[in-house]
Amino acid sequence: MRSVSSLALAAVLGVPAAVAAQGTDVPPPLEIGAVAPDFTLPGATRHGVLQEEINLRDYAGKTVVLAFFFRARTRG
User: Fold this and answer.
1) pLDDT, tens digit, for every residue of 28-66?
2) Cα–Cα distance between 73 and 76 in angstroms, integer?
3) Handedness of CA 7, 5, 49, 52 (dihedral sign)
4) Residue 68: which of 11, 2, 17, 19 has the closest Cα?
5) How far is CA 60 from CA 23, 36, 41, 55, in A?
6) Helix, strand, or coil here: 41?
7) C-alpha–C-alpha distance, residues 3 and 53, integer Å
8) Which of 23, 29, 31, 55 is the most buried (most CB within 10 A)?
């Protein structure tokens, strides 16, 4: 469970998964209220995975909520 949480956090912070899995060179967490760095992630809806990735910069000036669900949209 710890590695899943660290990878989810790494995705939010834009840290490559390989680096996060090793636990090295991970930047410190952002301060509350700080502007998040731009990142790109695959998106999904209740109908399936989106064809185009989602970029944080596309939502500049809007409130963004990231929700992570254990095993959501996976085969396992």
Assistant:
1) 898 998 888 899 988 888 888 899 999 999 999 898 887
2) 9
3) negative
4) 11
5) 30, 10, 16, 10
6) strand
7) 23
8) 55
DSSP secondary-structure letter at 12? H
Q: End-to-end CA distance of the chain, in Å?
A: 15
Chain segment 1-37, per-residue pLDDT in tens: 444 444 444 455 454 554 445 556 888 898 998 888 8
Tokens of 44: 């999904």
Q: How many CB atoms lie within 10 A of CB 43?
A: 13
Report which of 27, 55, 50, 51 is spatially closest to residue 39, judged by C-alpha positions.
55
Q: What is the pTM of this model?
A: 0.47
Q: What is the domain partition of the chain in residue ranges? A: 2-59
